[in-house]
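Can you make up a protein sequence with its backbone structure tokens?

===
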Amino acid sequence: MTGSASEPAKSPPQAESDTMTETTLEKTEIFVRHARELDQALNSGIRDLQAKASTHGTAGILVTKLAPGRFTLELSHDVPFGYTYEKS
């Protein structure tokens, strides 16, 4: 895991075939160690994807909880532009 205790770690970029489907434009993984870091980490990641979504204009954001403190944020065509969906 990289990053400091106050900044969430993001996984390094991987080959598209390993991490994304054809409906996913971008994927980021968020790890936090403490619950108090969760809101800031998710909000920051979502803001980053919102900026990228505005350039595409065709995809929304999908937030998936993988485990306690571990989430993926995806810019996905499965979510309508302008929306953020959550999945567990």
